[in-house]
Amino acid sequence: MCASIATILVVIAVLGCSYANAAPVSVRFLEGVAHGYFIVRSLVGETIGQGELTQVLKDENLVESHVVIRFKDGSLYDEKVAFSQQRVFTMIRYHLVQQGPSFPDQVDVSIDRGKAEYNVRSPARKDGKEKVLTGQFDLPNDVYNGMFVVVLKNLFKDANATVSFLAFTPEPQIIKLQLRFAGEQTVQIGDLSRMAKQYVFKPQIGMIRKFFGKLSGQLPADFHYDCWILTDEMPSFVQFLGPLQIMGPIVRIELISPRLSAKPGDKRSSGN
To answer: Which of 13, 70, 107, 173 has the most CB atoms around its CB within 10 Å?
Structure first.
């Protein structure tokens, strides 16, 4: 599932320069049409939101993926990414909106590779006017905002990778993000058992301070994100664990399946 989930993740994590240079990720599995649903829980297991992924092919090479999460507190996570998949994955356009009490910072950012242009919208001020920051920016070929699950699905078994990520501070900054293979874990699918690969995204706190200053002092020393990918012949997303924004709460994102509502007196729809 999810080209976008782990989303995910204007996590805006910043890694140090000691990591290896990033490079475009080769296409092993082509992305296609997809429609999925997922649930967002707190660390104590409380359901705090639900999400939906829609993904379409606009032509042979261009994929458009859209993730929307609506939280019970009224918050909204809305992420769109368009990317090509000709030999390597390349992000073409990106737009992220994070609004409401679940997000410490209200975010509305976008960037377009073709136009080499970015836009950052700030919340409306007391006079009711929002501030818009616009500028020119040339995207490297290895930037993967909203595409980390796609990247993980295309890594070889046990492989690590370093990719680039665009952080808005508010001007865009190119940073490096290392994806580390952390082992395998059993996953239950009904009565079946499968293996999933666990990846850890662990930023270096020192570089975060460069961009976020005193804010980063509140981060735990072991600040990281986790993502699990099913290791079948066709890999797929299993679960994400981490914050959706750098100072936001840690959440768990899992897939859910649609179920028919039982009609009165119709035992066939009960699933028994």
So the answer is: 13
Joined together, the tokens standing for residue 184 give 């395998």
What's the token pair of residue 32? Answer: 């296609």
More confident residue, 263 or 69: 69
* pLDDT (average), residues 165-182: 82
Q: Looking at this protein, which amino acid is placed at residue 228?
A: W
Averaged pLDDT for residues 52-65: 92
Taking a C-beta distance cutoff of 8 angstroms, is the pair 251, 41 a contact? yes
Instruction: Give the alpha-carbon dihedral of 227, 239, 37, 259, to 10 degrees.
Output: 170
Judge whether 174 and 168 are in contact, CB under 8 Å.
Answer: no
**For residues 189, 191, 196 and 201, what is the CA-based torsion angle, rounded to 10 degrees?**
50
The model's pTM: 0.83
User: Virtual CA dihedral for 16, 172, 253, 204, nearest 10 degrees?
Assistant: 10
Residue-by-residue DSSP string for 96-164: EEEESTT-SS-EEEEEETTTTEEEEEPPP-TTSPPPEEEEE-PPPTTB-TT-HHHHHHTSPTT--EEEE
Round to whole Å and give the CA distance between 1 and 82. 15
Element (H, E) at 206: helix 205-212
Residues 224-254 pLDDT 10s: 789 999 988 889 999 999 989 877 889 999 9
